[in-house]
Design a protein that fits this description.
Number of strands: 0
Helix content: 55-70%
Structural class: mainly alpha
Radius of gyration: 15 Å
Organism: Pseudomonas savastanoi (Pseudomonas syringae pv. savastanoi)
Protein name: DUF3015 domain-containing protein
Pfam family, one: DUF3015
Oligomer: single chain
Largest sheet: none
Length: 131
Amino acid sequence: MLFEGQRGTPAHFLASTTNGTSGNATFGMTSGTNGCSTNGALTYGGKSWLAMNGMMDELSKDMAMGQGEALTTYAVVLGVAPEDREHFAAVTHEHFSQIFSKADATAEDVHTNTVNVLKNDPTLAKYATQA
């Protein structure tokens, strides 16, 4: 669940080693011999990482304040580089009402809205394509 939504060989490699699989999977990913494509987004049975880990409440509080552990964790999961995380926090704080657009927003709503906000920011747009 830690790597949900991430793309690319590094994310798939880390997910496979974190999940305790053997080296066969990593060899197959890098060589393409086992039919595993590292271009697809990682998912966990259709359940959002945020929802699975009960982070929605904490994330909403942190985003409303513009700082906090859950917000930093979300930035890491989205692949936001350390040098852009302060800007990520400021932008998501500024667009809080757009990201958490309704009281019963789902994790999927929040993620989709976050990606849309990132797409419109010159510094953060590059992370919207990774999410």
